[in-house]
Amino acid sequence: MLRQGLYVVRGLYRDGLKLIRLAGQQSFNRAHLPASYCHQPIGVRALTMSSWPFSSKPRDYSLPNESWSPEMQKLYDHYNALCEVEEEGEKKRGAWWRLPSYNRTLKYATGGRCLSKLLQAKARLFTRNIEEPGAGFEYVVFLNKPEKSCVCVFQAGHLLEGPPGHVHGGAIATMIDSVTGTLATYLSGPVMTANLNMNYRSPIPLGSVVLVHCALEKVEGRKTFISCRVTSSDRAKLHTDATGLFLTINVGHLFGA
Amino acid sequence: MLRQGLYVVRGLYRDGLKLIRLAGQQSFNRAHLPASYCHQPIGVRALTMSSWPFSSKPRDYSLPNESWSPEMQKLYDHYNALCEVEEEGEKKRGAWWRLPSYNRTLKYATGGRCLSKLLQAKARLFTRNIEEPGAGFEYVVFLNKPEKSCVCVFQAGHLLEGPPGHVHGGAIATMIDSVTGTLATYLSGPVMTANLNMNYRSPIPLGSVVLVHCALEKVEGRKTFISCRVTSSDRAKLHTDATGLFLTINVGHLFGA
């Protein structure tokens, strides 16, 4: 049901609870921005690149850390390289964008004062609530705007166990909800999950690296339909397939605004 | 995709990797057992009540702790009272059973030696991987055997955030997978999730207490169909409804046995 706080925050800002668009869907059309911006896409960029108002930048969990396996790093490098292309000696943005990821963007976006009254100050994004590198969800999402699709490289840590030695179905559902929802948000603005339908085909061993591929199926009014396939890193084995239905919302209603 | 390690362990035990039934489905028919046993149901009881072979008993996460809200405690007390009935001055088992819950049953069940070679020694059940009381999933499952149903009292901690101030859809999916799967396991033996289909109707505020009601729909060969409704604690508001399909498995295949 999530949309990563990161994206929802695009709609939130005020003395307390005013709605503005820190970075709206028009962010997709910034053809004039230099190629290096592909590493700081949408929403967050508006905060980080110019006038970050707080003492320190939050940790971007989508960047490599020492827990990443060589396989995870290799896949990261592969997609990250696609974020830049060289044309006539100049580096330009490619079709892919790496999406940064934080454990609580709202805290940073508002300075935390008003929202800490409204929300618990200790709240953390579910997928980023474990600080120990490699213990929980290690993942990075790359968006392909022209194709209206994305891929997530996901390494499942030892705290995600369900069946002995394998990843919990709820942890797989969490990644599917997060990645399909992220794509829906980029395509349709702030959304909430309305339906998730998942077929578990083959269990995922703890510690392994898988790919979560998502693609837009269709948009009908407020409804955005996303399909999803979780495969082995070489794409040969299908672990889970799923569909997600997302409804466009006015995020203000979450706060009674 | 999980079946809590607790239940899967029913099928696992040997020098290394032999399959036996520590407590099988016949556990349902222990009418001769005293009422007090309803607090130590199936599987674990076989380990804990007679010859617990290790130095200390593991923590049972389904028992009340200081983080539980008065509402959570009240619901616990309500269902726990139904686990015992008094007839002619004697206490007997009621229709309900409280299910204990551990963060890694296999570790305890085998002494950890063989399985630690096979699995990561640090692995923890996804729903019990946070030690801080109240921060993650606080829940307790009560099983109603005659009705082939169960109810889970669930208090959502601040580390389960998805939309600002609300529970992540993946965390809700995790509870649904866990509770439907637990019921399927009690009815059909070790199972794996084959399909989960969830409709998110209304977001769940962080910190609130909800009920997860599950009931058997039908059994067809290896397939067990479970329905599920996540409601407010007074049952007035429907947050999520879902169906789960589970396939009976031989747990040995998870280990290549």
From TrEMBL, chains A, B:
UniProt-listed GO biological process terms: apoptotic process; fatty acid metabolic process
GO molecular function terms attached to this record: hydrolase activity
Any one cellular-component term (Gene Ontology): ruffle membrane
Localization per Swiss-Prot or TrEMBL: Cell projection, Ruffle membrane; Cytoplasm; Mitochondrion inner membrane; Mitochondrion intermembrane space
InterPro entries tied to this protein: HotDog_dom_sf, THEM4/THEM5_acyl-CoA_thioest, Thioestr_dom
Enzyme class (EC, first level): hydrolase
Catalytic activity: decanoyl-CoA + H2O = decanoate + CoA + H(+); tetradecanoyl-CoA + H2O = tetradecanoate + CoA + H(+); octanoyl-CoA + H2O = octanoate + CoA + H(+); hexadecanoyl-CoA + H2O = hexadecanoate + CoA + H(+)
All copies of domain Thioesterase, residue ranges: 165-236
Membrane topology annotation: Peripheral membrane protein
UniProt EC number: 3.1.2.2
Entries under CDD domains matching the protein: PaaI_thioesterase (cd03443)
Alphabetically ordered keywords of this record: Apoptosis, Cell membrane, Cell projection, Cytoplasm, Fatty acid metabolism, Hydrolase, Lipid metabolism, Membrane, Mitochondrion, Mitochondrion inner membrane, Transit peptide
Pfam families xrefs: 4HBT (PF03061)
Protein family (similarity comment): Belongs to the THEM4/THEM5 thioesterase family.
Protein known as: Acyl-coenzyme A thioesterase THEM4
Originating gene: them4
